Amino acid sequence: MSLHPYRQEHEDIRELLRQYDNLKSGRSHSFINEESFERIIDHFDDMDDLGKAIEAAETGIEQYPFSASLLVKKADLLIATRKYTRALALLDQAEILDSTDIDIYILRTDAYLALDQQEKAVKLLEDALDQFEGEDRLNLLFELADVYDDYEEFDKIFDCLRMILEYDPNNEEALYKICFWTDFTGRNEESIRVHLEIINEYPYNELAWFNLAAAYQGLKLFEKSIDAYKYALVINEKFDYAYRNMADAFIRLRKYKDAIEALEKVIELARPEDVIYEAIGHCYDKLKNYAQARFYYRKASHLNPEDAKLLFKIAGTYLNEKNWSQSVKYLEMALRINRNNPEFNLAMGEALMKLDKMKEAIQHLSLVVRNRPRNSVGWEALIRCLYEAEFLDEAEKQVQVALHATGGKPLFLFYQSAILFALGKSKEGLIILELAMEKSPRILKKLIDLNPAILQNQQVVDLVARFKRNKSI
Q1: pLDDT tens string 163-204
Q2: pTM score, whole prediction
Q3: Distance, CA of 43 to CA of 270 (rounded, Å)
Q4: DSSP for 7-74?
């Protein structure tokens, strides 16, 4: 055995190229066998000199006109140079000489796809499946799956991968791919059957356990998915994607402490990611541990400083703590990145109202209703802000617009009534209140929240009492 195989290989190819040059120039009669021509072609191909590679293939074919492998080599090069029709003609010749060469079918498929003839590619591969066994058949199934992907026959991709796993249950490529296509096609029940069969035969196949768990997760059977992920982790305790997906299942079950534990394992095993820190922050948010939530949201924000949503989530923790000034600080940062975001502007409007900065709040809430005119949440906040700021004339105008924009939501009838009472238009206010009570008496509490003193009005009390007698509030 040579101590320097790469040096030996380099010397061998140099000698072959010298012989090849002699053959082309006719300086001396040099015998180059078929395999050596293949090596010369591969050398030029590796050097990205396709012209010389094609020339070498043509010279080889002159010497060995019945060589299927050299015809296939030339066809491959022609496909690389987009000469698809010539390549197909060569592959037809090669098939006559050796119909067992799988590369003929794979290259023909590539040519058909390049010519936008997916139907021919599919038929070719489907017919060829019956001619091959073992690894060759698996390669054809992978090729067929790629054609179906190009053809957007996504269910058939799943079928190809299932057939591969029936023959080779431990095929890693197929196991990785079928997990994605199960989720994409929604064929979770079939995936469960496929992977249970694999696990029965190969109980230590971690990918099969992972895929089984993912399929349960797709069916929202979160407890079962967690159990399957745990089996995968027993087999491979460093399987970070199993921890990641298991954390998602725990979050769905509102088991936030368990989710945090799983996500912390992801951080131990993989490089830091903003989405993982954000998920931990979310869990602490749900546990009402706002300081810890902020800590992880900030870590996520350091990794992805252009993500305004993370700044908004930090602001949210301060809003939950009623720390309005700090929430405004982070909302301003978020709005610098995404000025017109309705969610950010709504939160800013609410925080500024708490700080009694009504005019600034109105500006932000006006942006919300401009961007989402049919959404009642923005209108509710804007009208409430105008009312509390005692801009009653403007509030009356905007409540009319809100009623039109939201299709006459009863909430805005209650608000309209409150505004009319505040404007001293008690008779009109009472008429609108009666209309609102007929539509949705349960929303009365919104009116009382806006103006608790309205219950001191005897006419309002009598109206409410009448509805209480006749309808349940």
Answers
A1: 999 999 999 999 999 999 999 999 999 999 999 999 999 999
A2: 0.81
A3: 39
A4: HHHHHHHHHHHHHHHHHHHTSS-----HHHHHHHHHHHHHTT-HHHHHHHHHHHHHH-TT-HHHHHHH
